[in-house]
Amino acid sequence: MTTFRIIIPMLFATILIGCNTEKKTNPEIENISHTEKETDTDTLTKHLKPFKSELPTIGLLMYNGVLQSEVIAASDVFAKPTEDGTQLFNVVSIAETKNPITTEEGMHFVPDYTFGNCPKLTVLFVPSAYDMYAQIHNEKIVDFIREKNKETQYTVSNCAGAQLIGASGIADGKKIVTWIGGGEQLQKDYPNLKVQNDSLVTYVEDGKFSSSNGNLASYISALNVLEKMTSLEHRKFVESYLYLDRLQNWKE
């Protein structure tokens, strides 16, 4: 009995100490969790660029099967700030619906806007796909390009995006270039376009319209429009930001 009376208080004391110890460590665990939560939240939000109505808006058209390099090139170029960190443009993606689109490369992109709620655009970039049949026969896409061209300062096509420009009729009588090997068919399909020799011409502009062979050449069209809207100095800054000089001068 005496032994039992001694053991009970000892067990109670041990449990009490254990509880107190747990309470002392909990705040540390909570602090770690709180810090991790803040970090997670910051990671989700710190890269968001606010839409500023006073800034020019660059619209990147997307649809299923789009070549993602032709979307990324324009976003790479126009999303870069000035050297002092000032935002110069709103860069938004647009698709027919809010559903994620699947690129040719298998990535899933969620558009910022749809054809129905797209803001006023200063520049519209029209990309391509390897198979353009569905796009040029989609009247909603063609009509969107036609309507947005009424408000844009510049309209740009890359690669087979020239087919959508041709289908819309907005650049009839204007020079245009498409993917390497696609010019002859483009001229047959849209005889009102002045299709350039794609084996010799990488990029061409005619008034507000410009076009390129697409893929990584899409950076050329984006950078040329950027220079027109800002300055040669800012273009050079963005090129250095993107390490494009390394692509031009790299050695083993």
What does this entry look like structurally?
The protein has one domain: Class I glutamine amidotransferase (GATase) domain (Rossmann fold). The chain is globular and about 50 Å long. It is 44% helix and 15% strand. Helix 2 links the parallel strand 1 and strand 2. The protein has helices at residues 2-45, 68-78, 133-136, 139-148, 161-168, 183-189, 218-229, 232-241, 244-249, and strands at residues 57-61, 90-95, 101-102, 108-109, 113-114, 123-126, 154-158, 175-176, 194-195, 203-206, 209-212. Helix 4 (139-148) packs across helix 5 (161-168). The strands form 3 sheets. Strands 5-2-1-6-7-11-10 form a 7-stranded mixed beta sheet, sandwiched between helices. Strands 3-4 form a two-stranded antiparallel sheet. It has a two-stranded parallel sheet with strand order 8-9. It has 9 helices and 11 strands. With 252 residues, it is of the alpha/beta class.
